[in-house]
């Protein structure tokens, strides 16, 4: 379908260039504009379709809810560890500068 729109726009431009009638020139330019407009969107749609994931790879709402719950639980655990001072973690040593 993309090739059709490109060919249609080229045919419109050819008509607009080769005619002596202002009416046919306007018609040719209109056809060329519509063809180019549709061609751009056809190329964009093909590009999006080529890089998109298949529907079978998308997560279901139930799985998404489980992932969110697990992330929230991990976040709460990390906040509790920070609040408790995270025993078992030793702060890095402080290096003192020596005068040169």
UniProtKB/TrEMBL annotation:
Query: Could you name the domain of life of the organism this protein comes from?
Result: Bacteria
The ranges of region (Disordered) come to: 70-100
Membrane-spanning residues? 26-46
**What UniProt keywords apply to this chain's record, in alphabetical order?**
Membrane, Transmembrane, Transmembrane helix
Give the Low complexity compositional bias ranges.
70-88
Protein name listed in UniProt: Uncharacterized protein
Q: Which organism is it from?
A: Tahibacter harae
């Amino acid at each position: 379908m993309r090739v059709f729109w490109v060919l249609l726009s080229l045919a419109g431009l050819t008509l607009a260039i080769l005619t002596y009638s202002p009416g046919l020139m306007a018609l040719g330019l209109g056809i060329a504009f519509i063809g180019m407009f549709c061609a751009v969107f056809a190329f964009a749609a093909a590009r999006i379709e080529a890089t998109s994931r298949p529907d079978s790879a998308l997560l279901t709402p139930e799985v998404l809810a489980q992932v969110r719950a697990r992330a929230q639980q991990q976040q709460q655990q990390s906040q509790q560890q920070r609040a408790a001072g995270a025993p078992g973690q030793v702060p890095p040593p402080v290096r003192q500068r020596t005068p040169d």
